[in-house]
Write a structure and sequence with these properties.
The protein is an alpha+beta fold. Helices cover 43% and strands 19% of the residues. It has 3 helices and 3 strands. Residues 17-83 form the Adaptor protein ClpS core domain.
Length: 91
């Protein structure tokens, strides 16, 4: 008679999560819808439809997440929005 021995092996794995940051665009009383839309197309590479939807959300909700990604990708994009006179921050 032979016996089989089962061995359960515990394997430790570590995954490194990279934190996703967001650019939040805030409403203001100075910029037109057209300017906001053009700025989002320029800085965030939005389609015209995406940019229009974001501008409407910002107008009615007060803020909107307009881009998600790594900090290194978002920093120059947020700077472009700020240079265009929009109120935005990376969170």
């Amino acid at each position: 008679m032979s016996t089989k021995e089962e061995v359960l092996e515990e394997v430790k794995t570590t995954t490194r999560e990279q934190k996703e940051n967001e650019i939040v665009l805030y409403n203001d009383d100075y910029n037109t819808f057209d300017h906001v839309i053009e700025s989002l197309i320029y800085a965030c590479e939005h389609t015209p439809e995406q940019a229009e939807q974001c501008s409407i959300l910002v107008h009615y909700k007060g803020k909107c997440v307009v881009k998600t990604g790594t900090f290194d990708d978002l920093k120059p994009r947020c700077s472009k929005l700020l240079e265009e006179g929009l109120s935005a921050e990376i969170v």
